[in-house]
Amino acid sequence: MPDSAPPLQKIETDQAPAPVGPYSQAIAHCGLLFLSGQIPLDPQTNELVQGEIEAQTQQVLNNMRAVLAAANLTPADVVKTTIFLTDLSLFPRVNEVYGNFFTSEPQPARSTVEVSKLPLGVAVEIEAIARLEK
Q1: pLDDT at residue 112, rounded to an integer
Q2: Residue 94 pLDDT > 90, yes or no?
Q3: Where are any strands of DSSP class E within 2-108?
Q4: Mean pLDDT of the residues in the chain
Q5: What SS3 class is residue 124?
Q6: DSSP class of residue 88?
Q7: Which of 1, 17, 91, 130 has an alpha carbon 20 to 30 Å from 55's alpha carbon atom?
Q8: DSSP-assigned beta bridge partners for residue 81
Q9: How far is CA 33 from the centre of its chain?
Q10: Can you give the pTM of this predicted structure?
Q11: Any idea what DSSP says for residue 90?
Q12: Cα–Cα distance between 95 and 84 in angstroms, integer?
């Protein structure tokens, strides 16, 4: 039986870090945009953002905003996020930056999990799902 689902559409921008492996920055499919996890990598320098977790989280969210913009979306279009932290005690500080980014009601559904390691040794990574149709 032939597959009747629409094709996957790759979303990419040079305003966010290029993938460091065999994946896409985001994939649009069936009215949703699936954003790969973003880490605190500065797309201009390709260097990790140093400093406190707040600065790292802000860079992650800036990268997410750039990928959303490449699909003509904003943070208000995000319906679900997953935050990965290597130290869950950092959650209140990450949550403060996150709350200043997702200001539209309703805010996205969210999960937060502690993991033992993340790519390039970072402390935070955030992935998201957004709606394409408004």
Answers
A1: 98
A2: yes
A3: 9-11, 26-29, 32-38, 41-42, 47-48, 78-85
A4: 95
A5: strand
A6: G
A7: 130
A8: 110, 128
A9: 11
A10: 0.94
A11: G
A12: 12
